[in-house]
Amino acid sequence: MKPFTYVPFVFSFILLVFNVSAVEDQTSWDEKKIISRELDKAFKELLSGNAEKAANILKQTLESSHRISSTEKIEVLGRITEFSYIAKSYDDAVKYGTELFYFLNQFEDKKELQRDLIKRICSSKDWQATKEKYTVLCAENMELID
């Protein structure tokens, strides 16, 4: 048997693997474009003075995104928290801020971001309007605040 008999099969298999991974990357890329577009829409709403609508756009994006990366989820949760806070919807801000805080637990390199977030949540007078919702979060994480 000649040594190059299997080359076309191996080459075909390699092409197949690259094509499958390219399709997965394309799907991921499409999802990134959608999320980016939704972030742009939300920022336009925020700039036009409608922070509540901006937060709602991102909430829908978060709920409808099936393949969202960790980085994008962190950004979307952070923006929902921020826009809800601006809209004085403190319950939503605490809810999504808390979700973001606990989501960040799984990343060692995000501890500084987590520390900054908990400091903002636990030190702001406005957050204290929803005291019962964040007291446990702050009490459990006092070591991050100090």
Main CATH class? Mainly Alpha
Major beta sheet summary = none
Number of separate helices:
7
Overall mean pLDDT stands at 73
Number of separate domains: 1
- Rg measurement, Å: 22 Å
| SSE string | HHHHHHH
Residue runs with pLDDT of under 50 for 5 or more positions: 4-27
Distance between the termini: 72 Å
Q: Within the CATH hierarchy, at the fold level, what is the topology?
A: Serine Threonine Protein Phosphatase 5, Tetratricopeptide repeat
The portion of residues forming beta strands comes to under 5%
CATH homology-level superfamily: Tetratricopeptide repeat domain
CATH architecture: Alpha Horseshoe
Keywords: Signal
Write structural notes for this entry.
The chain is mainly alpha-helical. The chain has one domain: Serine Threonine Protein Phosphatase 5, Tetratricopeptide repeat (Alpha Horseshoe), CATH 1.25.40. α1 packs antiparallel against α2 and α4 runs antiparallel to α5. It starts with 6 loop residues before the first helix and ends with a helix. Keywords: Signal.
